């Protein structure tokens, strides 16, 4: 039995360290853009964040209501609880410990690429959602972009839009929005990933560290980080109007219609 601190009696922070990295900042903007378009305009929802890590998105999701987090690794659970989040240590590949129809919204943000049976996780998300509830999913895109970053983060696969849509439909969902993101980064990132294959910079895998837990992202200089953050804002604004045809990642919002 892993000893974890109780949920901290602390206010939800406005910003955490991950928010300052352009990749996290851009993903957050895109997620909020699509959620604001599709979700009911209320702050009284019950949300489940599946595979929540250290709660990197819980403070953003909490604008929509109360958030419950599930995470398989005790190290980020410890950090999430110290941040004041309601997070349980739990393996999302097992049946979720909730009754049918318990939540209005479920999120699986860069989660299902880590598990052997991604469909089973999506089916459990469908089960615990109320009729009319929504699922928000993000995943990495295109197997030809496979790199050492996928290896150290223990990914099983990357997805095309067609593959992700098929999985969601098989789980019972109706897909409301599905778009690639990091569209503007793609023309630079894709050739760089393929050219550097086998010679990528060494990043520490948090899966191999016994005590510490921190999402390891390739560092960028402050000017580049600022520029890419602005690109992310532009992309999120445009995604209000249309879906992007390619990118380094995917985002989908699907609904349980029955």
Q: How does this model look, in words?
A:
By secondary structure, this protein is α/β, with parallel strands linked by helices. It has one domain: Vaccinia Virus protein VP39 (Rossmann fold, 3-Layer(aba) Sandwich), CATH 3.40.50. 33% of the residues lie in helices and 19% in strands. The chain has eight helices and seven strands. The chain has helices spanning 22-38, 58-61, 74-82, 118-128, 148-152, 161-170, 186-196, 222-239, and strands spanning 45-50, 65-71, 87-89, 103-109, 129-140, 174-181, 249-255. It has a seven-stranded mixed beta sheet with strand order 3-2-1-4-5-7-6, with helices on both faces. β1, α2 (58-61) and β2 form a beta-alpha-beta unit. α1 packs parallel to α8. It is globular. The model is unreliable at 204-209 (pLDDT under 50).
The secondary-structure element order is: HEHEHEEHEHHEHHE
How much of the residues is beta strand, in percent? 15-25%
Q: How many helices in DSSP terms?
A: 8
Largest sheet, in brief, is:
7 strands, mixed
Pick out the low-confidence regions. 204-209
User: What is the CATH class?
Assistant: Alpha Beta
Tell me the domain tally: 1
CATH topology: Rossmann fold
Principal-axes shape call: globular
Q: Helical residue percent?
A: 25-40%
Can you tell me the CATH architecture? 3-Layer(aba) Sandwich
**Rg for CA atoms:** 17 Å
The SS-based structural class is alpha/beta
Summed up:
This protein has 258 residues and is of the alpha/beta class. It has helices spanning 22-38, 58-61, 74-82, 118-128, 148-152, 161-170, 186-196, 222-239, and strands spanning 45-50, 65-71, 87-89, 103-109, 129-140, 174-181, 249-255.
């Amino acid at each position: 039995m892993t000893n974890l601190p109780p949920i901290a009696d602390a206010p939800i922070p406005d910003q955490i360290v991950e928010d300052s990295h352009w990749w996290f900042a851009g993903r957050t903007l895109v997620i909020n853009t699509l959620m604001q378009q599709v979700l009911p305009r209320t702050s009284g929802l019950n949300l489940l964040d599946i595979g929540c890590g250290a709660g990197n998105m819980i403070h953003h999701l909490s604008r929509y209501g109360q958030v419950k987090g599930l995470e398989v690794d005790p190290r980020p659970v410890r950090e999430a609880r110290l941040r004041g989040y309601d997070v349980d240590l739990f393996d999302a590949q097992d049946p979720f410990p909730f009754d049918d129809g318990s939540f209005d919204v479920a999120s699986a943000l860069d989660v299902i690429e880590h598990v052997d049976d991604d469909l089973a996780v999506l089916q459990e998300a469908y089960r615990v959602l109320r009729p009319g509830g929504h699922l928000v999913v993000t995943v990495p895109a295109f197997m030809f972009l496979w790199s050492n970053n996928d290896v150290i983060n223990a990914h099983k696969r990357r997805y095309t839009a067609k593959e992700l849509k098929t999985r969601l439909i098989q789980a019972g969902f109706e897909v409301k929005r599905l778009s690639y993101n990091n569209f503007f980064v793609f023309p630079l990132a894709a050739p760089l990933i393929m050219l550097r294959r086998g010679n990528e910079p060494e990043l520490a895998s948090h899966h191999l560290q016994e005590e510490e837990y921190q999402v390891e992202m390739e560092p960028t200089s402050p000017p580049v980080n600022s520029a890419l953050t602005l690109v992310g804002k532009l992309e999120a604004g445009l995604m209000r109007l249309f879906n992007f045809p390619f990118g380094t990642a995917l985002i989908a919002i699907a609904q349980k219609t029955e």
